[in-house]
Fold this sequence. Notes:
Layout: E1 8-12, H1 17-28, E2 32-37, H2 42-52, E3 57-61, H3 67-81, E4 86-89, H4 107-135, E5 138-143, H5 146-150, H6 156-176, E6 181-188, H7 194-199, H8 201-214, H9 227-234, E7 245-248
Parallel strand pairs: 1-2, 1-4, 2-3, 4-5, 5-6, 6-7
The structure holds nicotinamide-adenine-dinucleotide.
Amino acid sequence: MGRLDGRVAIVTGGAKGIGRHYSFALAAQGARVMIADIVDGAGEAAEIAAQHGANSVASEICDVSDESAVKRLVSATIERFGQIDVLVNNAALYAPLPEQKFTEIDVDLWDRVMAVNLRGTFLMAKHVAPHMAGRRYGKIINIGSGTAVRGIPWLMHYVASKGGIMAMTRAMSRELGDDGIRVNTLMPGFTLSDSIVNENPGHVETARNRAVASRALKRDIHPQDLLGALIFLASADSDFVTGQTIAVDGGNVNT
Ligand SMILES: NC(=O)c1ccc[n+]([C@@H]2O[C@H](COP(=O)([O-])OP(=O)(O)OC[C@H]3O[C@@H](n4cnc5c(N)ncnc54)[C@H](O)[C@@H]3O)[C@@H](O)[C@H]2O)c1
């Protein structure tokens, strides 16, 4: 028996990087998973279907910054699975971002980071929450980042967007509590995802050793390290937890 049997989860950015691990982990606990990403998640969906059955998964291409695309995704999920219990707001502009002084950040790039990371998280919650409210139950897991607490340099657009997500989580939890919807932030430390390792070796070089040295537990973080907290926040085990930030970072930021 899985801890998420009978549940339906949407994972944005669920086709690659850490999100791919979230999609597989939720399915392994019995959830039916909608993989939503700007890249095609059909291959990941086929892998999950092979392990857990054809009705365990679907995938849609969706740009979370686009409200009409978000509405289509939510409708497609309801049509396919009939309900939505868990939303993992993981999509973000992160791995491809070059490190830059903020005085050199182009305004268009600033706006794009805000559109995907902050507006995307807002739009997904905006269109999923009414379905959850109708069933008086739901779990929204917003993906934050330790960078917003530590204020790391050279990624100020990203750091600001993640700070916004973490603040939004608190406000959202207050608005949605009466509907039985729990809203929390899962806040990873610097994690060796395939995306960051392959797409931004320069950032890995800057961040990796600095991050490990700042932890109580001095080792790298891998996507697998995040899955216990993800499943806790998605499952009934955390039904009286809302508005919180859960850091999974080896004891770097003390929340
Ligand atoms: N890797 C880390 O060190 C780390 C640390 C803390 C938080 N995070 C967060 O974890 C999440 C995953 O990070 P990752 O390391 O896998 O990097 P990533 O850049 O691969 O993750 C972003 C995911 O979002 C998708 N995406 C990008 N733009 C999108 C859009 N407009 N619409 C829908 N999907 C879109 C990407 O295709 C990808 O699947 C991100 O929210 C990131 O900010 C990562």
